[in-house]
Amino acid sequence: MSLSVRMQHNLPAIALDLDFEAPPGVTVLFGRSGSGKTTVVNAVAGLLRPQAGRVAVGDWVLFDTDCGVWLPPHRRRLGYIFQEGRLFPHLTVRQNLNYGRWFAPREVQRENPDRVIEMLGIGHLLDRRPAMLSGGEKQRVAIGRALLASPRLILADEPLAALDDARKAEILPYFERLRDEVSVPILYVTHSAAEVARLATSVVALQDGQVVRFGPASEVLADPSVAPAGVRAVGAVLSVRVAAHHNDGLSELDAGGARLFLPRIAHRIGEDLRIRIPAQEVILSNRPPEGLSALNVLSGQVEKIRPGEGPGAIVSVNTPAGIVLARVTRRSVAALGLQQGSSCYAVIKTVALAPQDVGGRVV
Amino acid sequence: MGWLGPAEIEALHLSLRVSLWATLITLPFGIFVAYALARWRFPGRQVLNGLVHLPLILPPVVTGYLLLLTFGIQGPLGGPLAELGIVFAFRWTGAALAAGIMAFPLMVRAIRLSIEAVDPKLEQAGATLGASRLMVFGTVTLPMILPGVIAGAILAFAKAMGEFGATITFVSNIPGQTQTLPSAVYAFLQVPGGEAAATRLVIISIIVAMGALLLSEYVGRRVAKRVAGS
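YS: structure for the whole thing
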């Protein structure tokens, strides 16, 4: 089911004005803090009433100021996963999980609690209260509680932002499973390029309340002007397949015929994945590199050179593995004689390919 | 209770009955007004806040006189209510009304503080999970403010037990009908040789007040622990 969002809302700090129609899957609202992401999600949830607009899931209208439709939050059939979890402290984990189920009409309850509890690995926590859970456990319970409300739309507002890297790595796979196993549209807010690369079906890049870019993750992430962390977050997203695991602690990936090596990942051989390659971890050479410690070399042609504001430039290289982005200095571009169409080699350090940038492929 | 005379036992009974009813009847109103003051922004909010606190700052005799004017047999509310069979003037029901009104500000303050301590974000979470406003109140807000509600109720009960000025002004000091514990102490002190009976009632008053305070602390702490989830 697709998700269509149109709204105008003036806040003291920003004027929100956006309009997008997202295909089924995970739609990521991506932008700096203060760009209006949370306001959009709260308006979709009905916690905030925009001055004008329309939001619909498929043909089910949540609000439409033109026709005077406004469903209150409790009638919107949502699963809202908040940044801070917001579990009810006076209820046990089991009661928290059941909370949304109490209010969902019986005929729409399609999620089996046992399956959800098993998927999230929270079976041993059921009799505890939220105060006795770790941050990662709380967030897993919050995901379960949202799912068991049998929502028609899942909202997630920076659900990983309050967690450390280890906990993030623990929770992200559950969102991938949500995307791949639950056929409910997901609207996901983040400012992390790694999360976008792993989860997004489509990305809505927000800046000062406006949509500056809308499209698949690989396109939006390649644009330095929209990345919230600026040029550091720019990177290419490649579709790959796990080819082999080697004894020296490396995994081998097949990327459109080219081979990539990275530190051992947990995925099975033959599994389809996508991997984010940060532009600042790629260096370029105009002849086949020799005597280098880097294992990953992709040959290709320069597709585009985009000068940045400072001394740097982003070079897109068309390789058999797909478009790879490299962040190099403008001086190097001149020294190597790079221009559109010229042959070059993209070199990627193996250890620069971090396992947290690797995720299941979008189906 | 062999050491108490019949008049003293009667006063104690009456006081307990008056205070219990005063607390039970005002509790729902107290929760509602506290919630309105804590969560809603509406014109006249400050006026409502002032009205609620009025009995706390007015001289009790003034409150009692206003009650007499309003709820007396000839009063604008007392007259119609009397026709319905609800009479306050010079009845124990009037003592309960006076005690309830005098205790109301304390009750509202305690409950309001606990409502303000509940994170509205939890109530929002309840709404997104399909709970209507009333259900959110019943399943999230109310369980979480329970310590404050209990503390407020016990405080109001203790205040009602001690209410004197408004009660004696509104419903006088009729043994067996409106002579509550403090009124009885006052009456005993007015007659020669009444000091012993007055002293016994004073001791009982202290025990009830201290007991209520300790109970409210204890129950409040137990419930707070359960609500906080540890």
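YS: worth flagging: The interface with chain B takes residues 45-47, 72-80, 82, 84, 86, 88-91, 99-100, 102-104, 129-132, 145-146, 149, 155 of chain A (CB under 8 Å).
IM: good catch. Also The domain at 236-360 of chain A is CATH 2.40.50.100 (OB fold (Dihydrolipoamide Acetyltransferase, E2P)).
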